[in-house]
Every structure is written in C-alpha cells, then in structure tokens.
Amino acid sequence: MREIGHFIGGKPVAGKSGRTSNVYNPATGEVQATVALASVEEIRAAVENAKAAQPKWAATNPQRRARVFFKFVELLNKHMDELATMLSKEHGKTVEDSKGDIIRGLEVCEFVCGIPHLQKGEFTEGAGPAIDMYSIRQPVGVGAGITPFNFPAMIPMWMFAPAIACGNAFILKPSERDPSLPIRLAELMIEAGLPAGILNVVNGDKAAVDAILTDPDIAAVSFVGSTPIARYVYGTAAMNGKRAQCFGGAKNHMIIMPDADLDQAVNALMGAGYGSAGERCMAVSVAVPVGEETANRLVEKLVPKIESLRIGPYTDDKADLGPLVTKDAYNRVNGLIDRGVEEGAKLVVDGRGFKLQGYEDGYFVGGTLFDHVKPEMDIYKTEIFGPVLSVVRAKNYEEALDLPMKHEYGNGVAIYTRDGDAARDFASRINIGMIGVNVPIPVPLAYHSFGGWKASSFGDLNQHGTDSIKFWTRTKTITARWPSGIKDGAEFVMPTMK
Ligand code: NAD
Predict the structure, then answer these.
(1) Which atom of ligand 1 is nearest to the CA of 249?
(2) Residue 157's closest CA among 182, 134, 191?
(3) Is CB count within 10 Å lower at the N or C end of the chain?
(4) Is the pLDDT score of 495 beyond 90?
C-alpha cells in the first residue's frame, strides 16, 4: 500500500510517528493509500528547516520571488490534467471541477506575481524639519496553514502563495483525507525555483495542528475548515501569541424575488447547490423564494432538473457531481435527510439510497430537495455539506432578508432580482461577507479578498487580495531625522506637531 509521507526541506520524507490514516477512493470505498500523521517532533523538524531557510528568502529581491510564481503558474498549466485527476481520485469531485479548484489557486499565484508592487511601503518626505517617515512591510517569519478537504488545491494556494511571495517560510498541514495534491504542489514549487525549506508540507491530524499552534517559532496561522475547529484554532493560536485568521462553516441563502428570471435562478441553484456534491463553503443550501407563486414555480422547475442530475465517479467526464468524500460524510448527510423528514419538512426529491451500478460501495448521495423548511429545524440550522437544498418560503422581502441576517453563519448570500433598488438595499443591510447579485457563488477573484462574517470567520484579515499581504507581513515605521534638523539641547515635552 502506498504511504503518503511529508515534504520537508525540499524533499519527500517518510512519516516516523508510526501513526497513519486511510485515504479512500470515494467512488469505490476502497483504501488507496495511507497517509502519515506527524508527531510533534516531525512538526519541529519542518519548522527548523523553515526557520533556517527563511532569512535568505526574505532577503531575495521581490522580483526574483515573483519569478518563482511566474514559473509555478506555467507548471500548473502544464500539469493541469495530471493534477486534476490526482485531486479527483482522493476527493471524488469531477475532473473539470478539480480543474476549477486548481485554477482558483493558480489565480492567487498570478496575483502574487505582483509582489514587488504589493509589498511596497509608504514614504513621507519632510514629516518634520529634515525628518522623513517611512513604513515597510516585512515578512512575519514562519507561517502555517491548516486546510480542509474540500479544496485541496485552491485553499493551500490561498495561503502559501501570498505568505511565500512576501518572504516567509511556510508549513502547510493539509487535510488528511486528500493529501496527495498538496505534496505535488510543493514539488512543483521546488521545480519553479523555490529554495528548499521555504514550503514544507506536513500531514497529520489534531496532534500536528496542536504542535503548530504551540510552536514558538511559528508567527502566524491561517486556518480554513469547520466552525468548531476554526474557533479552537483561533483561540489557541492567540493564546500562544500568534496572529491568526480562521475561516469556518457556512449556510448560504439565495433569495429569489418575484421579478427574478426564474430559469436563470433555477440553473444557478442547480450548480451552486449540487455542484461538487454540495461540499463547498460557498454552496447554496437554502433557497428563499419570495411569495407563494414564486415558490411554487421554483420548486416545479427544480424537481425535474434534480431528478435528472448525472451522478458518477470522477472517471465519468459527463457527470455533474461525484460522491461525498468519506463514509462518515455519507452517513452524516443521510442522517440529516432522515432528521429533516422527522422534523416535518417536505422531502420533494429523496437522494437517499442512490446506487450506481459497479460503484455500490461508493459514497454517493442523490440530489435532494426539501420544501417548507422552517428556521427552527435542524436541517436549516446545520451546515449539511451534501447535495441537499432546502426551500424556506418567505412572504415578502423583509421576511426573506431576515433569514440570512439571523442565521449563525455569514459566509455568502445571493439575491436574484431585476430590481436594482432591492439589490442595493440587500447588499447594504445584510450582515454577511460575500454577496452575489444574480451571481450564485460570489467567491471574490484573487485580487479582492475572501472572507465571511459571524461564525464563518474569526480574525480580521481575509484570504488573498491586499488583505493577505497585510496578514503575512508586519509593518515597521521608521522616523529618520538628519543632523541639519536637530536642535541643541534635550527635549522633555512630548513632541507634537503643534
Ligand atoms: P475540518 O474542520 O474537519 O478540518 C479542517 C482541518 O482541521 C483539517 O486539516 C483537519 O485535519 C484539522 N482538524 C480536524 N479536526 C481537528 C481537531 N479536533 N483539532 C485540530 N485540527 C483539526 O473541516 P473539513 O471537513 O476538512 O472541511 C469542511 C469544512 O470546511 C466545512 O465546514 C466548510 O464550510 C469549511 N470550509 C470553509 C471555507 C471558508 O472559507 N469559510 C472554505 C472551505 C471549507
């Protein structure tokens, strides 16, 4: 059986802890590899490598650092098919969807090719008599990233691209469920010219995460995953004096106004609700049609489309979606569908018991639709993270707006309407981080920043965009006065510009 180890000091390294975890093929349920789970000592070894390599990398001029990313982008494009297939084989999503995962990460690498400009400081000439004042942005040192299973390419690149471009060394702790791709990305970074020790990938579970959170040489931690772990990582990192940004779960609503183009809204719901089997933090899991007539027409149009979804393994290039990632995820999603029925929601399309010939042990769940879901139900409150869409009917716009406003999570939200006034009011009043107006999954592009509000995010700086440059650097402000501006004698009063 293939054992996936770590990538430390510029090369693959076998695990030494003696602890491993299984990596499955979600389409068949077969164990296809094991992954090493790092011990505290192995995290330490990675940090030591990173710490030793970082000063020279930080002193490398920003144009040269950018060139590594120009080359890396080229390599990602060259190896796109291989990388996407590797990703799909462990995650389960379709190969085309895996390409989307990689390309969204690649776009962050393109963004950081601008690091010579992005990391520039500020300068004020003549802030006082012969005084110049300037601020520079220096790397934090060694940074770490802890990532979820659902985007094993994009999310590691959200983190390591800006961190490394800014002159930091990086420890990536990817999800143990699909660990092959992050290691391959590190190999390609070396091929692109990154010095050894600047990007280390250490596989592991809670023990590895705890070792990162308490390591005295790690200055900043970026986390993406479920809300309880995000909250834990944020608190523990802060207690240990680290800078942290932690992104959690979601329950994204789409409001459908009576004036919306219903066919467009239905197509958007199909892609955003069922694409990637609903395993996206920006998936739409709640549809809120406004008015009974909109609701009836919406459900009527959704049903045949959900029933004809093509579900298949990643080798089926016509599949719309694949299986869930693990047996646990499969059991959890089926359990939540049972719970929705018990709670009295109307199960309009039932995806339980979906079987695919030849893939009977795969973790497939069919597209599922609940209607008449109420805010007090567990299936409304919980992030299901599966191909399950809930319809919550609202009488009017205010009632529709109130639903996402009162929900625990605040990652993304969308409104479908032709009414500019309604869209503007919605974007202005809603307490959610990313808003789509006739856009179902409003994931900002690499040069803007990604992040939710409420229980979807802990910390104040977002992923990618200019926020990421701020997160991975520290500001230093220098005030320099030249002898021609220095008066004789000591000054005891607080200097001001009076
Ligand atoms: P997860 O929280 O189970 O795991 C995330 C990471 O935390 C993994 O690397 C895992 O090894 C580690 N981890 C797991 N349990 C831990 C523990 N007890 N202590 C310390 N570390 C632990 O999340 P997942 O199932 O891999 O990913 C799905 C979740 O991620 C969903 O909730 C989804 O909404 C969320 N997500 C959020 C965003 C966002 O940007 N807000 C993006 C993608 C995914």
Answers:
(1) 34
(2) 182
(3) C
(4) no
Pairing label, strands 30-36, 3-4: parallel
% of the chain residues with pLDDT over 90 = 97
Q: Whose CA is nearest to atom 42 of ligand 1?
A: 281
Question: 2-248+456-478, superfamily in CATH?
Answer: Aldehyde Dehydrogenase; Chain A, domain 1 (3.40.605.10)
Pocket of ligand 1 (CB under 6 A): 146-151, 173, 175-176, 205-206, 209, 224-226, 229, 247-250, 281, 383, 385, 411, 452, 456
What's the gap in Å between 145 CA and the centre of ligand 1? 12
Is residue 246 annotated as part of the catalytic site, yes or no?
A: no
For the stretch 105-126, pLDDT in tens is 999 999 999 999 999 999 999 9
Ligand 1, atom 34: closest residue by C-alpha: 249
Return mean pLDDT, the chain.
Answer: 97
Backbone angles phi, psi at 251, to 5 degrees: -145, 95
In a mutational test of the pocket of ligand 1, which residue from 150, 285, 441 has the highest number of ligand atoms less than 8 Å from its CB? 150
Q: Would you list the domain boundaries of the chain?
A: 2-248+456-478, 252-437
Confidence of residue 468 (pLDDT cuts 50, 70, 90): very high
Alpha carbon of 224 to ligand 1 centroid (Å): 6
- Within 8 A by CB and 6+ apart from 438, the residues are 260, 264, 268, 414, 415, 416, 417, 423
Residue 341: pLDDT band by 50, 70, 90 thresholds? very high
Residue nearest to atom 39 of ligand 1 (CA): 247
Q: How far apart are CA 195 and CA 148, in angstroms?
A: 26
> Residue 482: is it exposed, middle or buried by C-beta count within 10 angstroms (0-12/13-18/19+)?
exposed
Q: pLDDT band for position 411 (50/70/90)?
A: very high
